[in-house]
Design a protein that fits this description.
By secondary structure, the chain is mostly helical. The chain has four helices and no strands. α1 packs antiparallel against α4.
Length: 120
């Protein structure tokens, strides 16, 4: 589940960042051809709300590796776009932080939750 959600979200973010802003009365809108990316970005947070606990939990960090794999997939998709603009590099750094940080944070939190119980 985490792999699917993070992979599609990484694809949608990379596609949206690559396309940039389209014309709008408010300054920035969905550009032509960006409808699928925008739709995926709006759907993914709802999936995380309903299914997030199955992936993001600190009693076992291993299910969060799906998020890491999906973020790495988003990085590869972002790097496959030519040319790679500066805003895409910002996205790549954020996705890399998510890929590395999510399992580490969950592992650390889980370890700290078990430590006081083991001492009693």
């Amino acid at each position: 589940m985490g792999l699917s959600v993070a992979g599609v979200l990484g694809w949608a973010l990379a596609g949206s960042v690559y396309l940039g802003c389209g014309p709008s009365t408010r300054g920035c809108g969905v550009p032509d051809g960006g409808g699928w990316y925008f739709g995926a970005m709006m759907t993914m947070p709802w999936l995380l709300v309903f299914y997030g606990y199955t992936v993001i939990r600190d009693d076992d960090w291993r299910p969060s590796l799906g998020i890491s794999a999906g973020a790495v997939g988003g990085i590869f998709f972002a790097l496959s776009r030519e040319p790679v603009p500066l805003r895409m590099w910002v996205l790549i750094v954020v996705l890399a932080a998510v890929a590395a940080g999510t399992p580490l944070v969950l592992w650390y939190r889980g370890r700290n939750r078990r430590t006081p119980a083991a001492q009693n």
